[in-house]
Amino acid sequence: MRLDVIGNISRDLTRYPDHRGGVRLGGAALFVSLAATKAGRRAAPVCVLGNDLAHLPEAPSLDTLDWSARLQARGTSTTFDLEYDLQGELVEVRTDYGVAEALTEHALGHASTHPRATFHVCCRRPLDVEAVLAQLAQTTAQFSVDFFLPSAEAMIRAAAPWLSAAGTLFVNASEYLLLDQAVDCDTLREVVVTDGPRAAVVHSFGRRVASAVPPPRYAHEVSGAGDTLAGTYLAHRLRGATIAQALAEATAAAARYVAAPSIPIPAPRRG
């Protein structure tokens, strides 16, 4: 079964006080899909690409992804300027959504034609989370969700009516506090809570059922680590792994990711 990942693919600039970072390929839909694919689950980004990233499906480094759910649009793709502190905490984010303004309409259309698909929804602006989750819940599609801290408070509040229908929620420690204020966490089937280099835990209907400490690695790049964890976790759960097994695999994958160089933006093929 394929995992259809609704979210952005972007051109990113990451910046750290010690001069790490730089221009790279980014976006939650990309990182979740790549991680799921590496973990053995076919994945398709449900995204909108601008003219500047139209060549991505032809890039050898990305040819393991199923690109059939993308929408090609005129204009430029989403850009993120992400500033972090030395501890890897996000300090500031500046965004130009570009063609991703069309993501909601594209996602709704895709979901309506694939009512039995398995979805992961990256609850990030500019997606209309209420419309997308309402449609998925109405069609009883299997879906999971994650959030992005700068917009998490508003997105969690918008998503709240449908979160009890989600298979898995992914939040960091700060987002979990917001989640606990918006919904009764005892009604949630599976909540994966990450906390940087500290232990990640899973709560099921309010009870802690698993934990795993990521292997220690030097963090070359933290942007995308949570998405890598989510994609890996989902792939293993869909393949029948236990919660504890999936969490161990996911934390290990996230640790490998932060230690690796960033994903460069592939150059278009000539000719």
Instruction: Compute the separation of the termini in Å.
Output: 36 Å
Rg over CA atoms, rounded to whole Å, is: 17 Å
Summed over residues and divided by their number, the pLDDT gives a mean of 94
**What's the total helix number?**
7
Reading the helices and strands in chain order gives: EEEHEEEEEHEHEHEHEEEHH
Number of strands: 14
Largest sheet: 8 strands, mixed
Strand content: 25-35%
Strand order of the largest sheet: 4-1-9-10-11-12-13-14
Based on CA inertia axes, which overall geometry fits?
A: globular
Q: What is the SS-derived class? A: alpha/beta
Plain-language structure description:
By secondary structure, the protein is an alpha/beta fold. 31% of the residues lie in helices and 27% in strands. It has helices at residues 28-38, 103-113, 129-138, 149-159, 173-182, 225-238, 243-259, and strands spanning 3-6, 10-15, 21-26, 43-46, 48-49, 71-72, 78-84, 90-96, 118-123, 142-147, 169-172, 191-195, 198-204, 207-212. Helix 1 crosses helix 6 (225-238) and helix 2 (103-113) runs parallel beside helix 3 (129-138). 46% of the residues are buried.
